[in-house]
Amino acid sequence: MIITCVLIDLYIYILTNLFSFNYQPSGSSQSSRKVRGGAKILDGNVKLNLDAFKPNGAPTHPDANAKTFVRQCGVVVRDGVPITMQEWIQPNNPIPGVNYVDTRIKDALWRDLMEHFILPDSLSERQRNKVKEFALHKMADAFQTWKKRLWTEYNARGQKAPEFIGIYEKVRNHYDAFIEYKTSGAAKEKSAKNQINAKKKSITIN
To answer: Does pTM surpass 0.90?
Structure first.
C-alpha cells in the first residue's frame, strides 16, 4: 500500500511537470504572480512588443516575448473557458447535446491576450488576423491538454478531485460536471473513435 501511494505521488509529479503552464515573462521588469503548479495571466501593466512573424502568424521576435505569447495563450484559455466545454470548433451541423466554444468567447480570449502584447502599427489587417488565428490554434491545443491533464490526474489519484487551489481554483464549479461527462458513454464512444482515427492517420503517414 505504501509503495502504491508513493508511485501515485510520483506519477502526479511527473504529469504536473510534463504539462505545466509555468512561464516567466520576458522583456519586462514586471512579472506575473506565481501560483502553485502554474501562473496567473500577466499583470495588467505588462506590455510586450512583438515585432516579427511567420507567414502563419506565429511571432518570432523578440524571441523571449514570442515564447511568452504562446505560453499566455495557455494561461488565458485555462482561466477563461469552463472545462465543461466539449468541443473547440463548431461544425456546420452541430451535434445535439454537444456544447462548443463559440466565437464570442474566442474573441474575448483574444482581447484578454492582447491586453499584454503590442503589434506593429505597420501590420496589415490580414496579418493581424493571421496572428489571431495562430493564437486561437494554440489556445485550442492548450485547452485540450489542460482537460487531458485533469482527467489523467483524476485517475492517478484514484478517481479523486484535486485540491482546488492555484491553477485548479477556477475549475471547482465545473469539476463534477466535467467528470460526469468524461465517465459517460458518449465520452467513451468519442474516445474510441478518436483512437481509431489516430491509428488510421498513423497508417496513412507511414
So the answer is: no
